[in-house]
Design a protein that fits this description.
Two copies of one chain form a homodimer. Chain A is α+β, with helices and mostly antiparallel strands and 168 residues long. Helices cover 23% and strands 35% of the residues of chain A. The N terminus of chain A is likely disordered.
Chain lengths: 168, 168
């Protein structure tokens, strides 16, 4: 490897293998790291969320109003999700992972009643344990509309994916 | 649970149990999510890093100059780490996790020679597989000086930790 001053070509051309891998990672993921901006300080915050894909292929999260990321997304809808292929044995950097940049929208019970109901069904199918608290007044579903992503499928296998690439 | 308009008291008083749990999570973690700002857009980015604790108790990461987070930290040293207790069975939100807000410093080979060497030894003890690429010209160790953290040890068990609480 050479120093990066030469701007080496590190991205491979996005192909169907990369797209399929991205779709599979999104479909199977039950947990992700979410990056948001801390309100006030704008510090980048990494937190944990449980997720599921909606029927439209966009990620859904179910989060509490008491959480830091809820307040963060209310103040700034820009966020990203880190999803990963599987668990870690040996070197953690050998496992494929993907950063997906998204815009978050809260599926408000009053103004997005139907969308919330559809999202709820898709979410609970993937995360049945969440039925225990999904209807608490403090919890809301959010849809994360994907804008673009970077997929790192292991050393030397990096791809850039568009919103179009990310949908099945 | 009630709506958050009343500003319910969601944080417990930080005690030695919470501090010990935080220390253990940091000491055992081999992988973390890192939140940074994307240069140019300031979009929050969540990416994966491997990590180890330095002898001073501060987290160390080893990252490539070709990665998005390297460029991000060069432009803005503010970041956060998400570390987690263990792997996921059942509801992912039942597993303890912690967001640690940090300031990143690159341990430059020329200007931080001794610190880099000490960091390298601590890192490779915890991540022996990284010996394969730790000395490549494209890789650098960074020290993440911890400022504060939020520990979520499961439903109803949330704590705020200071820089002092986070060090052993």
């Amino acid at each position: 490897m050479s120093a990066s001053q030469d701007k080496p070509k590190v991205l491979r051309e996005t192909d169907d293998v990369a797209r399929s891998q991205a779709h599979a990672m999104l479909a199977y993921a039950r947990v992700a790291a979410l990056a948001t901006h801390e309100p006030g300080t704008q510090w980048p915050l990494a937190s944990r969320v449980s997720l599921a894909l909606g029927d439209d292929g966009q990620p859904l999260i179910l989060i509490s109003r008491l959480s830091a990321h809820f307040a963060a997304l209310e103040a700034d809808a820009r966020c990203s999700l880190l999803v990963s292929e599987s668990e870690i044995e040996g070197d953690p950097l050998r496992v494929a992972r993907m950063t997906v940049l998204c815009q978050a929208l809260r599926l408000d019970r009053a103004t997005h009643t139907v969308e919330r109901s559809v999202a709820r069904a898709a979410f609970l199918k993937h995360q049945p344990e969440a039925a225990m608290y999904a209807d608490f007044g403090d919890f809301d579903f959010w849809r994360l509309t994907m804008e673009r992503a970077s997929l790192n499928a292991g050393f030397g296998r990096a791809y850039s994916l568009s919103a179009h690439d990310l949908l099945p």
